[in-house]
Amino acid sequence: GDSVTQMEGPVTLSEEAFLTINCTYTATGYPSLFWYVQYPGEGLQLLLKATKADDKGSNKGFEATYRKETTSFHLEKGSVQVSDSAVYFCALYSGGSNYKLTFGKGTLLTVNP
Amino acid sequence: EAGVVQSPRYKIIEKKQPVAFWCNPISGHNTLYWYLQNLGQGPELLIRYENEEAVDDSQLPKDRFSAERLKGVDSTLKIQPAELGDSAVYLCASSVTRGAGAFFGQGTRLTVV
After folding, report:
1. Closest Cα of chain B to A93: distance in Å?
2. Number of A–B residue contacts, CB under 8 Å
3. Cβ neighbours of residue B37 under 8 Å, at least 6 residues apart?
4. Residues of B with CB under 8 A from a CB of A
5. B42-83 pLDDT, tens per residue?
6. Is the Cβ–Cβ distance between A47 and A62 less than 8 Å?
7. Do A100 and B56 touch (CB under 8 A)?
8. What is the per-residue pLDDT for B101?
9. Could you tell me the sign of the dihedral formed by the alpha carbons of B44, A80, A66, A45, in that order?
10. Is the dihedral angle over the CA atoms A102, B48, A98, A49 positive or is it negative?
């Protein structure tokens, strides 16, 4: 079945550091890929998405590129802020009529001033 | 545009009692999901609706959980009777197309004591 594997956290960085959170997936067909962010006490918010190979999703300084050859969708940001502290989830929509979002376990990011 | 609305935000009940959660999806979103999120984990699908039809309920524990989506809009998720292990966050989400991703409500945090 479909699955998403994220790097385990927690990840602790200083403000303005470079961020990478690795995400790899297993899926049939050609899934759409997403990153969601969950701030403390809040629901999940869609951060960015990519629907086909080599697409780059971007939002709020975050980027991720859909790499079909390595089945990866790593999240990056060049300079993190304290306000980026949250849990980040990688997710995929599997193909066909199965409109099901499959999530990774999440990576907790803490950014210190 | 209003987002996905869930209520209540928090619920504390004694074990063996019934509980119900309500969700109002984004207007025009035909697909509605209920997800379960345990502490430190990614969301897991309980049930997916296409309009008023439950098209994927394979992960719903049907001995105690039930759901309905009357008229293809609002949805209710019920647990009867609740068990200690049901303590978690219950998330509702809706989507219009696979590529757009799903939009989540703030969730209901259930505590069973």
Report:
1. 7
2. 58
3. B43, B44, B88, B89, B90, B91, B107
4. 4, 6, 31, 33, 40-45, 48, 50, 56, 91, 93, 95, 98-107
5. 999 999 998 899 988 888 999 999 999 988 899 999 999 999
6. yes
7. yes
8. 83
9. positive
10. negative
